Amino acid sequence: MATHLILQKIFKTGIVSEPPPQADPALRTREQDLHAEILRVFGQAVTIRHIDAGSCNGCELEIHAINGPHYNIEGMGVKFAASPRHVDVLLVTGPVSRNLEVALKRTYDATPEPKWVIAMGDCGCTGGIFGESYASCGRIANVIPVDVVVAGCPPAPLEILRGILTAAQEAKQAAVKARNRDAE
C-alpha cells in the first residue's frame, strides 16, 4: 500500500532538478592561459606517476577529471605512466598509510633523477584528519621529499594543473642551472 502511494507521488511530481550553471568566460580564459603556459614551460612531454598512498579517492576523481576531454591534459604533453622508471613527476595523494610507507619509498627511489614530487590534497599535504597514528605516517613529506604542494579537499582540477606547472617550472630552472654548470 505505501509503495503504491510513493510511486503515485513520484509520477505526479516528475523530474525536479535545478537549471545548469551559466558558463563563466573568465574561467575558460584562465584555463587557456594555463594550458599555454604549460606548453611553453614543458617544451616537451612530461610523464607523471600517480600514487595513492591511502586516500579516500576524492583526489583521484579530480585526477580523472584532468584526464578527460574538458581539460585535455594529454593534449598539453602531460601523460600518466604505470612505471616509476619512466616518469618525471610523482603525484602522491592521501596520508601515507603504514602499509604503503615502504612501497612509496621504493617508488621514489626507482624514479630517475631529476624527479619532482607533488603532494596533492589536504591529507597528502598535512596528514588531514588522519594525522600521524599507529596506522598513518601522516603527510607525504614525512616519508619522501616533496617539491610542490597542492592543497584542497579535494583540489580543483585547475589547482592540480597549476601544481604540475609549478613542478615543470622547477624542472626547467634546474635544467638551466645544470647547463650553466656544465658550460663553466
Q: What composes the largest sheet?
A: 5 strands, parallel
Strand content: 15-25%
* Top CATH class: Alpha Beta
Shape: globular
Overall strand count: 7
The residue ranges in which pLDDT falls below 50 over 5 or more consecutive positions are: none
What's the CATH architecture name? 3-Layer(aba) Sandwich
What is the quaternary state of this protein? Answer: single chain
CA radius of gyration is 21 Å
Averaged pLDDT: 83
* Strand line-up of the largest beta sheet: 2-1-3-5-7
Helix percent band: 40-55%
- Count of the separate structural domains: 1
Order of helices and strands: HHEHEEEHEHEEH
Can you walk me through this structure?
The protein has one domain (43-183): Rossmann fold (3-Layer(aba) Sandwich), CATH 3.40.50. With 184 residues, it is of the alpha/beta class. It is built from six helices and seven strands, in the order H-H-E-H-E-E-E-H-E-H-E-E-H. The mean pLDDT is 83. The protein starts with a helix and ends with a helix. It is 45% helix and 15% strand. The strands form two sheets. The chain has a five-stranded parallel sheet. Strands 4-6 form a two-stranded antiparallel sheet.
